[in-house]
Write a structure and sequence with these properties.
Pfam families: CHU_C (PF13585). By secondary structure, the chain is mainly β. About 0% of the residues lie in helices and about 45% in strands.
């Protein structure tokens, strides 16, 4: 909230006195602050300056599905094992708050080893195997080590976001 500034004034008659005041009120659910400065001198000259500040009441955006869930920050589970098991993949939560998850994964040399335009949909997840041709054969298990990801997604308001980080494959 802005604070009231201190103003100074000068004129040719005499010293100028500046008094300030503040009025607070509510209109249509919005907070209104009216700052007022009055400058006057011994000759009877007077000038008034007024500033009105309106603080509008806002609300949280409503998710497209009409729910009331507030957006949560995306959580990354970045340990991946090529051993069998349903949870052995690069996982992001809560995905119900996000859409259009696109991911690219790179090795330590910056070479792309995995890519997906529909990540975590219909079982499409990274389990430590390459899915692009070039550096490794498609479908081949990647060596143990650190890899880097770039995740692009849209939040519940439709805003595009990018999250980058690392993951470990064992």
């Amino acid at each position: 909230m802005p604070t009231q500034e201190t103003l100074t004034a000068t004129d040719n008659c005499s010293a100028v006195q500046v008094t300030k005041s503040q009025e607070n009120k509510v209109e249509n659910g919005n907070k209104i602050i009216i700052y007022k400065w009055e400058a006057s001198d011994e000759c009877g000259n007077k000038t008034i300056y007024t500033q009105k500040v309106t603080i509008k009441k806002t609300s949280q955006p409503t998710p497209p599905n009409g729910g009331s869930e507030v957006e949560k920050e995306i959580i990354v589970y970045n340990g991946v094992s090529t051993e069998s098991g349903s949870e052995n993949y690069l996982k992001f939560e809560p995905i119900e708050n996000y859409k259009n998850l696109q991911i690219e994964i790179f090795n330590e040399l910056g070479q792309k080893v995995y890519g997906s335009k529909n990540y975590q949909k219909n079982g499409e997840v990274f389990r430590g195997y390459a899915n692009v041709k070039g550096v490794f054969r498609k479908g081949k298990r990647l060596p143990t080590g650190t890899y880097f990801y770039v995740l692009k997604y849209q939040d519940i308001t439709g805003k595009s976001n990018t999250k980058q980080g690392y993951l470990f494959v064992r």
